[in-house]
Give the backbone structure.
Amino acid sequence: MVGQCMWSAAHLAMVGSTFNALTMALLVGHHLFACWNGDRRLLEEHGEAFEVVRERTSTVPFQAILEGRQKLPPDYYKELIRAPYALIAVGTLGAYFAHPYMQAGAALVKNTGLVEGGILDGLLG
């Protein structure tokens, strides 16, 4: 849910049209409904067992750990050194260091420019 909100905010800032604002609001609303409905369905199916799990977790990243409802095991870092995480870390760092080359290549492409009527018109127009 947090990721969907971040994704929607980034796309709204990039495009900035009222249509995009409505689309992002509906998309976030759809995900809110899905979270609520999923919790409702799991509560109906599992009852008290689901309540126990819901009380010790959170949809906000790391909130349950910061509030003391969960504890990380002493060897939690071993999860992060597995191959999929290493591949993502290498790819992310590679993309970071390749940005100057990507920007140089993008400068060679004809840009469509700012979408007129967007929320960024006043700042960048």
Observations:
- The helical segments are 2-15, 18-46, 48-56, 63-66, 77-80, 83-107, 121-124.
- The two ends are 32 Å apart (CA to CA).
- The chain has a mean pLDDT of 88.
